[in-house]
Amino acid sequence: MENYTMEGRTYRYYGQESPLYPFGYGLSYTTFQYRDLVLSPPVLPICANLSVSVVLANTGQRDGEEVVQLYLRWEQSSVPVPRWQLVAFRRVAVPAGRETKLSFQVVAEQRAVWAQGWHLEPGTLTLFAGGQQPGQQTRAPSEVLSARFTVTGAARPLRGC
Predict the structure, then answer these.
(1) 126/113 Cα distance (integer angstroms)
(2) What are the pLDDT digits (tens) for 3-22?
(3) Which residue positions in the chain have pLDDT lower than 50?
(4) DSSP one-letter code for 161
(5) Exposed, middle or buried, 91 (CB in 10 Å: 0-12/13-18/19+)?
(6) What is d(CA 135, CA 127) in angstroms, rounded to the nearest whole number?
(7) Sheet holding 118-120, edge to edge
(8) Residues β-bridged to residue 48
(9) Rg of the Cα trace of the chain?
(10) Are strands 99-106 and 113-114 parallel, antiparallel or unpaired?
């Protein structure tokens, strides 16, 4: 095998085609609602980490568990990157009629792109938070929130941070 590119060989690089059973696929006996997605800081230096918080409410009649998923999408990159990349997930139990605020850290390493070595690039990225992948078609209602943030500074190798 001489072609080691991942394009067309893994769900991360399928282009517009969605996998049959994406990460987080499944049904629940209750319903959840996401709100108040906050990224801090909205403009961060190239080597900094991003703090993320989101509120998850169980709006159904039964206690339930939700797998909260965070994905990143590069708006423009100097090299091919996935449509979006899973950067965090957490299974959370939420009693019926209750809500919980979740906090995550997206570290600089998770924004690195491969270009003959791991590099960090400035630019605009979109973070998605929800119970499924962005744009996923499901029978059960689920929402995905999104927010953009900007990375500033000069591109540099990841080990230079």
Answers:
(1) 15
(2) 556 665 555 555 566 666 66
(3) none
(4) -
(5) exposed
(6) 13
(7) 113-114, 118-120, 156-157
(8) none
(9) 17
(10) unpaired
Tokens of 112: 């690195």
3-state secondary structure of 119: strand
In this structure, what token pair is assigned to residue 77?
């990159």
Q: Which pair of tokens denotes residue 65? A: 């568990």
141 has which bridge partners? none
116's tokens: 């003959």
pLDDT at 16: 60
41 cis-preceded (ω within 30 degrees of 0): yes
> Are 57 and 33 spatial neighbours (Cβ–Cβ below 8 Å)?
yes
Q: 24-160 belongs to which homologous superfamily?
A: Immunoglobulins (2.60.40.10)
